[in-house]
């Protein structure tokens, strides 16, 4: 088996089984974290709106004002807990890091070797750059 053929097979296998697999992983992660952030922010906003509505009803309903104050406080506490959950897990940061890593991998793919056009120097440089991105990416 010639050296050129072995390099071409390695590039093909590396691109399919390592590179594309990791790229797909980072794309899925970006989407998952973005959706999680959207849902947590929307739920927190809905809970804060519900708290404001309960407080407004409490202002109009004098005899049951204490009950409405309790309901408003409960909704506000749940909204705060949801905001804290989102901030603690850092969905925005995780989505941004996954997107950054995905873009870096896509840029490397543009300049990377193909199975038909490969040499030792380009192959080593490409694998080194990809593994560096994967090591420090999320």
Q: What would you say this structure looks like, in words?
A:
It is a single chain. The protein is mostly helical. It contains four helices and no strands. The protein is 88% helix and 0% strand. It is rod-shaped, with a radius of gyration of 26 Å. It starts with a helix and ends with a helix.
Give the helix/strand class.
Answer: mainly alpha
The end-to-end span amounts to 38 Å
Provide the gyration radius in Å.
Answer: 26 Å
The strand count comes to 0
Instruction: Label the overall shape.
Output: rod-shaped
Largest sheet: none
Question: What's the pLDDT, averaged over the residues?
Answer: 91
Binned, the helix content reads: over 70%
One letter per element, helices H and strands E, the order comes to HHHH
Number of helices, where a helix is a run of at least 4 consecutive DSSP H or I residues: 4
Low-pLDDT stretches: none
Q: What proportion strand?
A: under 5%
Can you give keywords for this protein?
138 residues, SLATT domain-containing protein, single chain, membrane, 4 helices, transmembrane
């Amino acid at each position: 088996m010639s050296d050129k053929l072995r390099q071409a097979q390695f590039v093909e296998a590396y691109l399919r089984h390592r590179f594309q697999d990791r790229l797909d992983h980072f794309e899925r992660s970006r989407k998952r974290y973005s959706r999680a952030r959207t849902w947590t922010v929307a739920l927190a906003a809905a809970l804060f709106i519900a708290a404001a509505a309960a407080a407004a009803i409490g202002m109009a309903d004098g005899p049951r004002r204490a009950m409405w104050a309790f309901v408003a406080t409960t909704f506000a506490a749940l909204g705060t807990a949801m905001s804290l959950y989102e901030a603690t897990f850092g969905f925005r940061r995780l989505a941004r890091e996954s997107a950054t890593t995905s873009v870096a991998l896509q840029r490397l793919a543009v300049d990377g070797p193909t199975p038909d056009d490969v040499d030792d120097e380009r192959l080593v440089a490409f694998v080194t750059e990809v593994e560096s991105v994967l090591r420090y990416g999320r």
